[in-house]
Each structure stands twice: as structure tokens, then as C-alpha cells.
Amino acid sequence: GPDGLPPVGYGESYQNNICILPNAGDPYVYSGGRFSDPDAYDAAIKLSNNTIYAPDASVTVTLSGDDGSFEDFQKAGFDPTSTVSGDMPSNEQILQWGRELLGM
After folding, report:
1. Cα gap 76→10, rounded to integer Å
2. Residue spans of the chain under pLDDT 70
3. Could you tell me the CA-to-CA distances from 77 to 36, 54, 63, 72, 98 in Å, in that order?
4. How far apart, in Å, are the Cα atoms of 58 and each of 26, 27, 77, 91, 103?
5. In a domain, 94, yes or no
6. How far apart are CA 98 and CA 38, in angstroms?
7. Is 80:38 a contact under the CB 8 Å cutoff?
8. In the prediction, which pLDDT does 83 show?
9. Residues with Cβ < 8 Å from 49, sequence gap 6 or more?
10. In a domain, 103, yes or no
11. SS3 62
12. How far apart are CA 51 and CA 8, in angstroms?
């Protein structure tokens, strides 16, 4: 697709996930696209309702080699319903999420 994005209608989607990044400044998104064109991005990749955990709540995004913060990403109109937290989950909390997901 244009700007390195999947073709429109491909169906790439990341929704209602928990994403745990081990280091402050780690990338949440590393893909094609342009910060100036959230509509084209949203037509190719759906991101919504994700919870991202990272030390110091520091998360980056890279689109076609251009870096920005998660805050910049959202201010540009991308992924408005996902959130970032600096309160890192414990190992037990991660295991509990897995148990709940598997119905254990």
C-alpha cells in the first residue's frame, strides 16, 4: 500500500490488547504511514482501546522512519482510545490476565 501501509481492506487490527514495553521510550508502533495522514493509516491499520504499559509512561511511535511520542501520535488524530500507563504490572498481574483470557 501507499507509504508502506497494508492495502486498504487487508484487515490489520490491534484492538483491546495489553501491551507491556520493558524500557522507557520503546516503540508501540513501528510501521509505514505518515503523521500528517491519520485517515490513510486508519484505513489500513486499526488501533483502538489498547493499554500500553511502559516505564515512566514513555512510549514512541515510528511511521516511515519519522519518530514521535505517543502523545504526538494521538494529537495528530491516531488511536484516540488507547492509553499509556507508567504503573508497570507485576508478574502476578500478568499471569492473572493470562488466566482470565484462558478462562482458568
Report:
1. 23
2. 1-2
3. 9, 21, 14, 9, 31
4. 7, 9, 19, 20, 32
5. no
6. 32
7. no
8. 98
9. 15, 16, 81, 82
10. no
11. strand
12. 25
Check if the beta carbon of residue 21 is closer than 8 Å to that of residue 58: no
- Total count of domains within the chain: 1
Establish if 96 belongs to a structural domain.
no
pLDDT of 3 reads: 78
Rounded distance between C-alpha atoms, residue 83 and residue 34, angstroms: 21
Q: Look up the domain containing 23 and give its range.
A: 2-86
Q: What is the pLDDT of residues 28-51, one digit of tens each?
A: 999 999 999 999 999 999 999 999
pLDDT of residue 1: 57
Q: Does residue 13 fall inside a structural domain?
A: yes
Q: Name every residue whose Cβ is closer than 8 Å to that of residue 85 and which is 6 or more positions away in sequence.
A: 51, 52, 53, 54, 57
Q: Quote the pLDDT of residue 30.
A: 93
